[in-house]
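User: Hi! I'm working on a homework problem where we have to compare a predicted structure to a textbook description. Could you give me the structure for the chain below?
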Amino acid sequence: MTAPDINSPEEQARYRRGHEVLSSIDGGGAPAVMAGLADIAPALAHHIVAFGFGDLYSRPALEPRQRQLVTLGILATLGGCEPELEVHVRTSLNVGLTPQEIVETFIHTAGYAGFPRAINAITVAKKVFAERGLLPVADL
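Assistant: Happy to help. Predicted structure tokens:
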């Protein structure tokens, strides 16, 4: 099996679709991630945009807010994904999630992934909220 040619018309169309979706919701970290991969793994950067956003995020059944809730929960549960979680906390705010909804997502995570993962996720959210002047977050 051969790897797909990321320069083929089909792959470029997927990439363009993904770039459009990514640009509409980006939390500010994606361009840096892609640039950081350019000199070592340009195909990985391509697939993140083409598959992650061109194929997955562009599917119509979930709204961007719903997708971000799922993404936050998964990244928090996985652990070790704090840089990606930071990007997605920013993206979540961009698509209209409130700080309270984001915090509640991470509190809910504690029941399934444990307190250490939830605390790590809350710490990431706190950093992003502080940058955006969103602290303190009102408890509901």
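For your comparison, note the following. The longest helix spans residues 9-25. The helical segments are 9-25, 30-37, 42-57, 64-78, 82-94, 99-113, 115-131. Good luck with the assignment!
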